[in-house]
Amino acid sequence: QVPLVESGGGLVQDGGSLSLSCVASGLTFSSYAVGWFRQAPGRNEREFVAGISRNSASVHYGDSVKGRCTISRDNAQNTVYLQMNNLKPEDTAVYFCAAVAQWRPVHELTTQDRYPYWGQGTQVTVSS
């Protein structure tokens, strides 16, 4: 197992910002691509938000957050970050980070079935 722990969620007003973190332990973190997904209330599927390659060379964003989110990582700290700006009520969801030993390009890692390792999630609520 690859323990992943998300933090940074919370309640924010429409137009506000949040920075999420995902800390991994027990692995060679620099060998893993990491993705952020979200699951909105009442939805069964997790929507791809952003992904980053193991060496930060490539990033990819979901259409619903493009231009409002930035993903980054610090392999020395085993941490991936997701900066979210101009948040909207429709961004309300539980946000999960996930990891996969990378051998595919990041733009092919946009579905939850690509990722074997998941965190427990952090709640983001955007009020109107």
Descriptive terms for the model:
mainly beta; four-stranded antiparallel β-sheet; globular
Can you describe this structure in just a few lines?
The protein is mainly beta. Helices cover 0% and strands 48% of the residues.
SS content category: mainly beta
Largest sheet: 7 strands, mixed
Care to count the β-strands? 11
Instruction: Give the CA-based shape.
Output: globular
End-to-end Cα distance: 38 Å
Descriptive account of the structure:
With 128 residues, this protein is mostly beta strands. Strands 2, 4, 5, 6, 9, 10 and 11 form a seven-stranded mixed β-sheet that branches. A four-stranded antiparallel β-sheet has the order 1-3-8-7, with no helix packed on it. It is globular and about 40 Å long. The model has no long low-confidence stretch (mean pLDDT 95).
List the helices and strands and how they pair.
Layout: E1 4-7, E2 10-13, E3 18-24, E4 32-39, E5 47-52, E6 59-61, E7 69-74, E8 79-84, E9 93-101, E10 117-118, E11 122-127
Parallel strand pairs: 2-11
Antiparallel strand pairs: 1-3, 3-8, 4-5, 4-9, 5-6, 7-8, 9-10, 9-11
